[in-house]
Each structure stands twice: as structure tokens, then as C-alpha cells.
């Protein structure tokens, strides 16, 4: 009986599936990172799983910031995983003498398209009490309280302000007052674009205009700002010049729960070194029941929730596009340029 059992175990060892053996011998493809590459873009491209990138980031200590990857860095691409190739140390030869030279793996050298995001001019903005509009919409023809496309409206812009017939202006609705979700300090008001008007007839301190575009109802009291033909533009990713830390303070829709593809407003602007194109990471501190800690623990690693890109930077606040969401994001969640 014992002899039969030994023979059975021997045969089982010899019949290990070739796929299992091949897994340990799998020769990876090497990819060289190009300008514009992102970890989730690489994950989606090579292993068809864009949500894999936090796994790849967490297992590579040399990448402290999950977007801070450099052109020229090399990746090993396997069927089910991606690994960073460790940087070679100059002057250090880790190969044993007389070791056989392995065939060099295939290296993919095609250039990846640079990642950009589009600023449409419909993102809105936050502004404090110091903000002053260029003009106001003061009335609608026939005493109406709501205007739409092709309706006649009246403004307080005139020749005194050097405004002229044919000039275009963007119309903004003054929305809710926004308080900081952490400090409760008043930040200002949210301004949402609702349409455009074009001046037709001028007086010294007033004018008639026609509504040329509307995305929602336009009412008297709306703010006017000069229309910018070049407002729509492509925003390229750029590394932050400063260590940025802040919070999501409001969303375009006003909703507390935020997902990828939505516009949010953050408490960082050019005064803090923020620029359009900066990618920031949305994080949340992890807390645990202190009864199990017994004073041995000070801080847990942050939970990575997603990422956003600043598309329009003001002095103290900015509008940003949430480009990645791997968990629920809320107003009040933290944003950082360098993850820990």
C-alpha cells in the first residue's frame, strides 16, 4: 500500500500542468514610460484593468506618488501584473561571473499620446466678497423674470465702460454661499455660467442685448463677465511646483457625493502654487478603535480615493475635474500632491 502511495505522489509531481511551470518562467515584455503616461492608463492598456494601478503603486516603494512617473522608467508587463524595473546602480555588477547571457526581452518603444483635459468654460468658479462683476443684467423685455435664447434683456453696461454694440458677455448665476467643510469659514459664493448675451443698442450707462445662448434660466441680477472666445482649451498635465494640501469644498452640482467626471471646487489657488494641469490625489485618513491600539500606533496609511486635475486656477480657489474615483468621494475629503 505504501509503495502504491509513493508511486502516486511521484506521478502527481511529474504531471504538474505545464502552465504552472510556465508561470515561473514567463518572460515579460518591457515598456518604457513616455511623456503623458499615467499608471491607470498603463494598467488599462496592458492588462485591461484600469483599477489595477493602486495595486501597482502600493507594491513599488520607488513610486511615492502614483502619478510621479518619469519618461524613461521601465516596466515589466506580465499577463496579470505590472512591475517596475529597479533602477540600475552605476558601477554595481549583480551578475555572477560566467553566468549565461539571457536573451533581451522585447522592448516597446512606441510613444504614448500626451494626456490632456479640456476646459470648456462652463466649469464655474468660487469667489469671495472682493469679487466684482464687469456688469449686471438689470431687466428683461416686457417685465419678464426669466429669459432664454433670442429674448431681449437690459444691462448696466454702456459707452462709459467702453462697451459697444456687438460685444459679447458671459452670464453667471450667483449660487449658494460656500463655507469650508472643515473650518466652517466662509469662502465666498459659487458662480455658475448660464449663457451668453450680445449687446445691440448702447446708451451711456445702459444697453439692450439679445440672449445668444442659455444653459438654464437667465434672470435679472445675473453677473456679466467679458466673453472669452478662447475659453475652451486643452489642459496638459504638469507636476505641482509646491507641496499642495487642501480640501474639496464644493461640487458643481451641489451634491455631497462626488464621482469621476464631475467638476469640484478646491481651496487651493495660485496663491498656494496651484496651476491648471496639476493632478492631485484625493485621500482620507483611516481611523480605528483605539481600545485595540494601546498607545503603539500614531497614524495609519491614508486611504487613496481617486484623483482630480485642476482645470481653472483662481487666486484662492480652483475648479477641478475628478478624473478617477476608486471609492466614494465626499465634500470635505482631503487633496494632496504627494501621497504618503
Task: Summarize this structure as a short list of keywords or feature phrases.
340 residues; 3 domains; Thrombin, subunit H; disordered N terminus; mainly beta; Membrane-bound Lytic Murein Transglycosylase D, Chain A; single chain; 6-stranded antiparallel barrel; 6-stranded antiparallel β-barrel
Task: Give a written overview of the molecule.
This protein is mainly β. The protein is built from four helices and 21 strands. It has helices at 2-14, 18-25, 39-47, 53-58; strands at 29-32, 74-77, 82-84, 107-108, 116-119, 125-127, 135-140, 152-155, 168-179, 186-202, 207-214, 223-226, 233-236, 245-251, 257-258, 263-266, 279-284, 303-313, 318-325, 329-330, 334-336. Strands 7-8-11-10-9-12 form a six-stranded antiparallel beta barrel. Strands 14-16-19-18-17-21 form a six-stranded antiparallel barrel.
Write the layout of secondary structure elements.
Blueprint: H1 2-14, H2 18-25, E1 29-32, H3 39-47, H4 53-58, E2 74-77, E3 82-84, E4 107-108, E5 116-119, E6 125-127, E7 135-140, E8 152-155, E9 168-179, E10 186-202, E11 207-214, E12 223-226, E13 233-236, E14 245-251, E15 257-258, E16 263-266, E17 279-284, E18 303-313, E19 318-325, E20 329-330, E21 334-336
Parallel strand pairs: 1-4
Antiparallel strand pairs: 1-2, 2-3, 5-13, 6-10, 7-8, 7-12, 8-11, 9-10, 9-12, 10-11, 14-16, 14-21, 15-20, 16-19, 17-18, 17-21, 18-19
Amino acid at each position: 500500500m505504501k509503495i502504491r502511495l509513493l508511486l502516486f505522489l511521484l506521478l502527481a509531481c511529474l504531471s504538474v500542468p505545464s502552465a504552472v511551470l510556465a508561470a515561473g518562467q514567463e518572460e515579460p515584455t518591457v515598456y518604457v514610460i513616455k511623456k503623458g503616461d499615467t499608471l491607470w492608463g498603463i494598467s488599462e492598456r496592458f492588462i485591461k484593468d484600469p483599477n489595477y494601478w493602486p495595486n501597482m503603486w502600493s507594491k513599488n516603494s520607488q513610486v511615492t506618488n502614483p502619478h510621479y512617473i518619469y519618461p524613461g522608467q521601465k516596466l515589466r508587463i506580465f499577463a496579470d501584473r505590472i512591475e517596475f524595473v529597479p533602477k540600475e546602480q552605476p558601477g554595481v555588477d549583480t551578475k555572477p561571473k560566467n553566468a549565461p547571457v539571457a536573451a533581451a526581452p522585447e522592448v516597446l518603444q512606441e510613444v504614448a499620446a500626451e494626456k490632456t483635459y479640456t476646459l470648456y468654460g462652463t466649469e464655474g468658479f468660487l469667489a469671495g466678497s472682493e469679487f466684482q462683476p464687469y456688469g449686471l443684467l438689470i431687466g428683461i423685455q416686457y417685465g419678464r423674470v426669466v429669459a432664454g435664447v433670442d429674448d431681449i434683456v437690459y444691462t448696466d453696461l454702456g459707452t462709459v465702460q467702453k462697451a459697444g454694440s456687438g460685444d459679447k458677455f458671459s452670464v453667471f448665476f450667483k449660487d449658494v454661499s460656500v463655507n469650508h467643510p472643515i473650518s466652517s469659514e466662509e469662502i465666498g459664493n459659487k458662480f455658475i455660467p448660464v449663457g451668453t448675451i450680445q449687446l445691440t443698442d448702447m446708451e451711456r450707462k445702459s444697453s439692450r442685448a439679445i440672449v445668444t445662448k442659455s444653459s438654464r434660466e437667465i434672470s435679472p441680477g445675473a453677473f456679466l463677465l467679458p466673453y472669452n472666445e478662447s475659453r475652451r482649451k486643452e489642459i496638459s498635465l504638469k507636476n505641482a511646483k509646491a507641496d499642495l494640501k487642501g480640501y474639496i469644498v464644493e461640487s458643481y452640482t451641489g451634491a455631497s457625493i462626488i464621482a469621476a467626471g464631475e467638476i469640484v471646487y478646491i481651496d487651493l489657488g495660485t496663491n498656494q502654487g496651484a496651476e491648471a494641469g496639476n493632478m492631485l490625489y484625493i485621500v482620507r485618513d483611516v481611523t480605528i478603535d483605539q481600545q485595540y491600539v494601546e498607545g503603539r500606533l500614531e497614524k495609519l496609511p491614508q486611504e487613496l480615493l481617486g484623483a482630480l486635475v485642476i482645470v481653472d486656477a483662481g487666486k484662492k480657489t480652483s475648479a477641478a475635474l475628478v478624473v478617477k474615483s476608486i471609492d466614494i468621494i465626499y465634500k470635505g475629503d482631503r487633496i494632496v500632491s504627494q501621497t504618503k
